[in-house]
Amino acid sequence: MLASVLCVKASSAVVDVYSLLARTRELAESPLRAAQAYENTARAIYEAEQAAIAAVNASEAAYDKVSLVHSDHLSTVLLI
Prior knowledge:
There is one protein chain. The protein has one helix at 2-79. It is mainly alpha-helical and 80 residues long. The longest helix has 78 residues, at 2-79.
């Protein structure tokens, strides 16, 4: 009899702990989603910054190439 009473109490305690953990999980869900959204936003900003840096580098390289062609053309014109 005592063993069955202890078993029922232990089972009840497990259910109580599980329900507490379920409630904790529910409460933590929203902040976890917010943290994930923040991480996604920070990653997107970093990637956008890297893309902008690459675009600036590409535009500067293109400008340098055009400037060299233009300055070579001017040198040729001036030599004539």
